[in-house]
């Protein structure tokens, strides 16, 4: 019996609201708020039609902590799920602190005027949440989120120490548009056009190795044969879960993140960047200041609108190499190294039939609901700021499987160290 407040009513927020309604025995009162009322009201109508559940909608400017505090005081939730944009993370965290309410999000904070994301801003809230006696769970979408739980599950079930992690994210779907992003265009383009980093243990310390952005000459990529989806060109990308996982996985020697991109998508990115339409600094236009990226966002398809015609699958998972102590002989403890691949396959059309959304929104929107459930059911306890791998992965993954995101674990071969790099570049320097 709990009240939940969801902030954000885009592609992801819609799935989150539907899944809360589908779990109305846990979430007995559901509030959905966003910058404007049209999207929350459309979701409310669809939820009533599909699940017979009444939810309440609100307008809030989540950039303003005071507005969020007032809304929390009015709606009295036990947990706030933030599926608005990363720019609102800190103001919503401030509001949760002021009111003593649990906080869950799916993407780490970014300042609006700088295409840069990292956890430092949110990790700085650790003591405040601890003192207030509430939990903040960061990055509880699919990646970050479920990928963090997959690593924690590998450590709990199969290994004492993890040596290598490769996270692989494939969207083998088709939406029939010349160009569209699968989630917020602004956040998506900022993420994929930045400099790429992966992590490697060098001597005793770890270091971030930099390589060119995915659409530039010299980007690192290889063809991976995904289950169900088949071979797909996969590009090295910096992704936020790596920042916490490299701190929280004992014995780690290498971590990389790979995402599939089509040549068509990369060509569009190159053109947008070269003509300056993806810039995030203000430019003069007929005497007004406009931010090209915001204008571009207004031109591109709304990610939620892609769902109706989307076909194909997403395959997201982790290839993990680890070591497990075997039975000890009289002389020494035997160690056994192996590699496992843990992954989920989701189907765009199936997600659409269930909740009217495509699989990228679905895979991102279900996990924060389950994270809220874990807190409300007492399966995740504590006070402070947590990344998902710091919490018990088992009840989380079990509940995800019951709620549309099952996983599979298979044996795999480890991926080579210099994957995707030409021979001439196989000794990258530490930053
Ligand atoms: P959308 O842009 O489709 O939706 C964002 C929603 O937030 C909209 O309803 C928007 O309202 C609302 N919003 C924007 N600014 C404010 C504000 N100041 N106050 C209140 N509401 C606001 O994005 P998505 O649904 O695609 O993505 C949502 C989040 O999920 C993003 O942070 C994204 O990074 C994250 N994500 C995480 C993934 C993961 O696996 N971890 C994967 C995919 C996405 P309006 O439309 O009226 O502006």
Notes on the structure:
With 431 residues, the chain is α/β, with parallel strands linked by helices. The protein folds into 2 domains: 196 residues, NAD(P)-binding Rossmann-like Domain (Rossmann fold, 3-Layer(aba) Sandwich), CATH 3.40.50; 221 residues, Dihydrodipicolinate Reductase, domain 2. 33% of the residues lie in helices and 29% in strands. It has 14 helices and 18 strands. Strands 7, 8, 9, 10, 11, 12, 15, 16 and 18 form a 9-stranded mixed sheet that branches. The chain has a 7-stranded parallel sheet with strand order 3-2-1-4-5-6-17, sandwiched between helices. A two-stranded antiparallel sheet has the order 13-14. The chain is globular and about 65 Å long. The mean pLDDT is 94. Bound molecules: NADPH dihydro-nicotinamide-adenine-dinucleotide phosphate (NDP). The site of NADPH dihydro-nicotinamide-adenine-dinucleotide phosphate has 34 residues, from helix 1 and helix 13.
Care to give the gist of this entry?
The chain is of the alpha/beta class. The protein contains 14 helices and 18 strands.
How many separate domains?
2
Question: What's the CATH topology name of the largest domain?
Answer: Dihydrodipicolinate Reductase, domain 2
Q: Radius of gyration from the CA trace? A: 21 Å
- Give me the count of strands: 18
Structural class: alpha/beta
Which consecutive residue ranges, at least 5 long each, have pLDDT under 50?
A: none
